[in-house]
Specification:
There is one protein chain. This protein has 156 residues and is an all-alpha fold. Helix content is 67%, strand content 0%. The relative contact order is 0.19.
Length: 156
């Protein structure tokens, strides 16, 4: 939505309805921060091209047309039958993303392949955004403050 009031209401409802740990991680991501996985985007893109059996130039060219590499990967992978339901946000970050720091590149690649084989496009898009920290959804820090102030019942 482009409505400021609707954005604040949606954020307020989200932060009220989810577990506190999920809300904290969502705030981290919505604020534009990435998840510290020690996995860089180049590695992810190279693994993705290997997974999809496509040349890097085609992936890059597709990314130029889409305008967002995270969305490009989700769109290229496309829908799958019976996608796996992902765990909650904090559970996924703590038990999956943050554990990548201690893995070898081969183990990281295996984990990426597992996700690309298991989750729907929307979930993959969000996973990819956790690496890049570039989740732009038209929510300023001021809107986040307003929503959180409403949740807490305090003045912004």
């Amino acid at each position: 939505t482009t409505s400021t009031l609707k954005k604040i209401d949606a954020l307020r409802r989200y932060f009220t309805e989810v577990p506190a740990q999920d809300a904290c991680w969502a705030l981290h991501i919505i604020s534009g921060s990435n998840i510290p996985t020690k996995v860089n985007r180049t590695f992810i893109h190279e693994c993705f091209c290997e997974f999809m059996q496509m040349p890097m130039w085609l992936f890059k060219e597709s990314g130029y047309h889409v305008g967002d590499r995270s969305e490009t990967m989700a769109l290229i992978r496309g829908p799958i039958e019976n996608p796996k339901t992902p765990p909650g946000l904090s559970e996924f970050i703590l038990n999956e993303l943050l554990t990548l720091k201690d893995k070898t590149n081969e183990e990281r690649k295996a984990k990426l392949f597992e996700w690309w084989s298991s989750y729907d496009e929307a979930t993959l898009f969000l996973i990819h955004k956790c690496f890049s920290g570039g989740l732009r959804m038209g929510v300023s820090k001021n809107l986040l403050i307003q929503a959180l102030a409403q949740v807490a019942g305090v003045d912004k």
